[in-house]
Amino acid sequence: MSQAHADTHDRSHYYVPHGSRWPVIASVALFATMLGFASWLNEFSFGRPLFFAGLAGLALILFKWFADVITESMRGYYNKQVDTSFRMGMVWFIFSEVMFFAAFFGALFYTRQFAMPWLGGTGDGVMTNALLWPGFSSSWPSNGPAAMGGSFQTVPAWGLPLLNTLILLSSGVTVTIAHHALKAGHRKALLLFLGLTILLGCAFLYFQAHEYIEAYRELNLTMGSGIYGSTFFMLTGFHGAHVTLGTIMLAIIWLRCLKGHFSKDDHFAFEAVAWYWHFVDVVWLGLFLFVYVL
């Protein structure tokens, strides 16, 4: 859209963005990333390079896509109707993420409350135990009656997981302080506390990576450690991916704040990322309780 069009744009009309090529290209890059990751896990030679190529392509596409949206916002294309649409879109996106994690937590609860007791001969599982796994006594954590992956140890809840819990809770406080600073017009405090939030997010990811290395090398806890290993890495791994995405979004918002974007009354992009970050915090509390503690 031309600059002349931007200068004469009527904010009373609902802005419909021009046709964009980014969604299609991003879908291709995302498919390549996931195909490469799956192939890497299955030890195909092309998996690792395809994963990183897809990831790099996706990052470049998102950079360009974000730039287009930011440009539209700064040129004044959006009005209250568009703002409402953005808010509804973010609410539904977070709801879809809630359902995403609900499915994974559901798998964990079903395994612990139903599948394992049945295999161990409790209640309605007497015949299941007698016919399939005689002598198996169920307990949690477990790698199942087949003892897949061999014996393992669990990650102690009161070590790195507790530290990461404190880090994420602290990051929720700092992003809230940053939000209040933005609404009060205190730009230095905004940049300071938003920057602290980003650093806390990076610290969380560092300690989680350290935890994974220790789990593999010292505890023999891997994705192949039966049902416990698969649910543990599925839940904590996808949460870590969400923390990574949230940290990247926070960094983008910090750069925009540094450039003087957003005002006290018009800063939905900041609010959307803050909503997402609080969602990540809440999910981690559930993870810490049901995966590490109980």
Percent in strands: under 5%
Question: How many angstroms does the end-to-end distance come to?
Answer: 56 Å
Q: Tell me about the biggest sheet?
A: none
Helicity range: over 70%
Shape: elongated
Q: Could you say which structural class the secondary elements and strand pairing correspond to?
A: mainly alpha
Low-pLDDT segments: 1-8
Number of domains: 2
- SSE order, one letter for each helix or strand: HHHHHHHHH
Mean pLDDT across the residues is 86
Strand segment count? 0
CATH superfamily of the largest domain: Cytochrome c oxidase, subunit III, four-helix bundle
Q: CATH topology of the largest domain, which one? A: Four Helix Bundle (Hemerythrin (Met), subunit A)
CATH architecture identity of the largest domain: Up-down Bundle
Identify the CATH class of the largest domain.
Mainly Alpha
CA radius of gyration is 23 Å
> What would you call the quaternary organization?
single chain
How many distinct helices?
Answer: 9
Keywords:
Four Helix Bundle (Hemerythrin (Met), subunit A); mainly alpha; 2 domains; single chain; 294 residues; Helix Hairpins
Describe the structure.
- With 294 residues, the chain is mostly helical.
- The protein has two domains: 1-78, Helix Hairpins (Orthogonal Bundle); 80-293, Cytochrome c oxidase, subunit III, four-helix bundle (Four Helix Bundle (Hemerythrin (Met), subunit A)).
- The chain is built from nine helices and no strands.
- Helix 7 (187-217) packs antiparallel against helix 8.
- The chain is elongated.
- The N and C termini lie far apart (56 Å).
- The relative contact order is 0.09.
- Residues 1-8 have low confidence and may be disordered.
